[in-house]
């Protein structure tokens, strides 16, 4: 049986949720039935070595920015050389450049992706252009029902949208919590809240820091660990200092061992505002038996069951977030109960094999179906 040749076109391979999902998918696809290639537009991303170690065919193209229109020809060359049958542009700017290249290469079957529940942080011209492209896709994968609704609102025909939830493998923990806490200068008995997220507007670290200030007033020994990097990190470090939190907040930067850090925390928190697809961090937290405090934004309620696996609070509401965090930190038995329920829920709803199988089924359906013009 001939293997289906599929290309995933990514704008970059930095450490983030979408990139982790791409790694899991391409690593675990049945290589007897599929031949995946990952086309990394930029190259030299922090996660690139993980893709190489997984055995996936990785091609890096040295994209130099929006004026580098030659990237279309370079993508097309890879598509033709690998004789790709199905192309999957993976987020901006791969959507626009990948679409142009696959059309030029004569590839009729392709799969778009929608990982967000809104586009409030993107320039209007980008939203309009991307929406026009997505509407032409023979199939679109949305990672939550909220993302599906957003894709349909953007003009994608409902019958072409397939909801495939993210899949997360059980997190690997390689260091004891006591060792991690020692490294970070945290007391062995200090209440610790953790967040693994990129420092961008979407994640709203401002609300989380203001909630941390309120938590500290009520629980002076409480600490906050922020894992990740991004354009707003310097501003958030400044805000932490303004709020008098310099001693109790740890900014760790990007960590490939982020699960070790999360496992050393008591509660996981995410303050996303206005839009969110489905954060890997929320599922990973649950799989580590950590109760979650998060906002009622986008696809988050599909990953966190309010009062059962954690607490959901309104966005941009530091008081509500602080109240929920303190409720868990102040009641370890409650935290353990919700954490255990979350682990069961996450394992049932966000299994890695289910995500890979759903993608494989969709790819086979597209190859067998008549192509859209």
Account of the protein in words:
- The chain is an alpha/beta fold.
- It is 41% helix and 17% strand.
- A 7-stranded parallel β-sheet has the order 3-2-1-4-5-6-7, with helices on both faces.
- Helix 4 (94-104) links the parallel strand 4 and strand 5 (109-114).
- It is elongated.
- The mean pLDDT is 92.
Decide which structural class fits the backbone: alpha/beta
Oligomerization category of the chains in this entry: single chain
Overall shape: elongated
Helix proportion range: 40-55%
Mean residue pLDDT? 92
Low-confidence stretches: none
Quote the beta fraction.
15-25%
Rg value: 21 Å
- Helix-strand sequence: EHEHEHEHEHEHEHEHEHEHEHEEHHH
Q: Please give the alpha-carbon distance between the first and last residues.
A: 27 Å
- The number of helical segments is 14
Strand order of the largest sheet: 3-2-1-4-5-6-7
Total strand segments: 13
Largest sheet: 7 strands, parallel
Distinctive features:
41% helix, alpha/beta, 6-stranded parallel beta sheet, 373 residues, 17% strand, 7-stranded parallel beta sheet
Question: What is the topological layout?
Answer:
Elements (H helix, E strand, L loop, with lengths): L3 E7 L6 H12 L5 E7 L7 H7 L2 E4 L10 H11 L4 E5 L3 H11 L4 E6 L9 H11 L4 E4 L2 H9 L7 E3 L13 H8 L7 E5 L8 H14 L4 E5 L5 H10 L6 E5 L4 H6 L3 E4 L9 H8 L4 E4 L14 E4 L4 H12 L2 H18 L2 H17 L5
Parallel strand pairs: 1-2, 1-4, 2-3, 4-5, 5-6, 6-7, 8-9, 8-11, 9-10, 11-12, 12-13
